[in-house]
Description:
Number of domains: 2
Helix content: 10-25%
CATH class of the largest domain: Alpha Beta
Largest sheet: 9 strands, mixed
Strand order of the largest sheet: 14-15-16-13-9-12-11-10-17
CATH topology of the largest domain: 2,3-Dihydroxybiphenyl 1,2-Dioxygenase, domain 1
Shape: globular
CATH superfamily of the largest domain: 2,3-Dihydroxybiphenyl 1,2-Dioxygenase, domain 1
Bound molecules: fe (ii) ion
Low-confidence stretches: none
Number of strands: 17
Mean pLDDT: 97
Amino acid sequence: xxxxxxxxxxxxxxxxxxxxxxxxxxxxxxxxxxxxxxxxxxxxxxxxxxxxxxxxxxxxxxxxxxxxxxxxxxxxxxxxxxxxxxxxxxxxxxxxxxxxxxxxxxxxxxxxxxxxxxxxxxxxxxxxxxxxxxxxxxxxxxxxxxxxxxxxxxxxxxxxxxxxxxxxxxxxxxxxxxxxxxxxxxxxxxxxxxxxxxxxxxxxxxxxxxxxxxxxxxxxxxxxxxxxxxxxxxxxxxxxxxxxxxxxxxxxxxxxxxxxxxxxxxxxxxxxxxxxxxxxxxxxxxxxxxxxxxxxxxxxxx
Length: 302
Ligand SMILES: [Fe+2]
């Protein structure tokens, strides 16, 4: 496994002050740096300097997503593989952003900018590496321990899915297919969760949601309490997905980017068979308890 995990998302947030406050005090991310137009944040149980960057912008949306590789050489290996695959790549030297090393940047067929990196400053998770307690003091809000996954949209779901399978050896946990067999959505993984990245038919270059991990169903209930207390607009849930079997709430940040808190799900391996969902059972697939999907969930992207 050369790509270790989803390491970073950079979100555009027009509602700047409220959004920074929300990510720090409602989601419970920890600020590690800022410059004039960006705030760098990490989830408490991540060791790297940041996993979420907020960017002052006129419109909401995703600037880029980034995966962390296992070794520095992986950037060279993937550069060659991408070029052989016909994808244009760009190398960006270390120091382009705070605490980051060299970056390999490219665009996927659904339009999003993706970066690969190996080097990033390590700041720790607030716990000692010898005889630690289960969590540190001073956590606030939902206190999501880590970034989990994201769902990106675009027309060429096949193309982006195939690229992650062919170039990065991602596996497909589940797929939602149209009556003609084409992909409406795919759930792809390189770790042992049902999705590190999911791709859905929709407007190019957009993001449907970014998902934060929380530990269990009681944390989902607590997250809903915290959202209610902070007037967070809930989109759906708390509920369960048929797809991934995960437990979930969808909600919006003050700039209109959809977030999710997610837990549960099964543990897939490279040899796990791909599960197929068909359009007639999509309600149960997306929201298992309700058996139907609200319009906003299928039409709002950022
Ligand atoms: Fe999700």
